[in-house]
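Researcher: We're teaching a course module on how sequence relates to structure. For the next exercise, students receive a sequence and then see the predicted structure as tokens, so they can try to spot secondary structure elements on their own. Here is the exercise chain.
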Amino acid sequence: MDIRAVAFDVNGTLIRILADDGEERIFRAAAHFLTYQGVDLHRYEVRDLYFQIMKEQLRASQEDYPEFDAVGVWREIIHGHMTDFTRALPAGKLEQMPVFLAEMSRGISRRRLGLYPHVREVLDVLRERYPLAIITDAQSVYAPGELHKVGLLGYFDPIVVSGDHGYRKPDRRLFQFALDGMGVPAVNTLYVGNDMHRDIYGAREAGLKTVMFNSDQGAKTYRDCVPDYTITDFRDLLTILGLPASFGAR
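Model: And here is the predicted structure for the students to work with:
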């Protein structure tokens, strides 16, 4: 293989994450916060509105693989239930409230956030030799902060987030954004992901070489899709690329 760039999925590939978007504490905290902004909703009403608006967003989309907009959901909840008290708040505060609620909700829902073994050491080797990119199904209010928390934000350019575009993987356009950002053809790019449909199938349809990281998350089969390589230890990515692993016992 003539590999000149490497792109990655995030959750389930680089980051081991567990989040519960239906966690009751999210909507209790949101309802309490909204009380101080002049919006009077019970936590169950907030929860029902949140998922109702999310589903409406997805149904209204013309995309094959639609993505929702978390900030837009919270904005609609606020705008649909604001009072004169809410309208009198400073414009800057009104503008930032949906962002704050989206970030707060993610923080409350998150139960685990950390790197898979050897991810950082492998990326340290790769970034000296290749442009690195991210292609992730996520929200922009989540992904950068989570990458920063685990110390990976500075490794990648570009970072392609589905929430910025209104559609998710396996849509090939997301992969093309990363290829364009790195300036490398698909045939010379290796993509590493953990989901056979969204990652491996999507990357193959876009013309990239693929590595399936068989982690504890993600779909393991999709139709007759087969990756170019499968790994269970992140260090094996260096072997695939013909690079020495000078760290850690095997």
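Model: If you want an answer key for the exercise: The chain has a mean pLDDT of 96. The first helix runs from residue 24 to 35.
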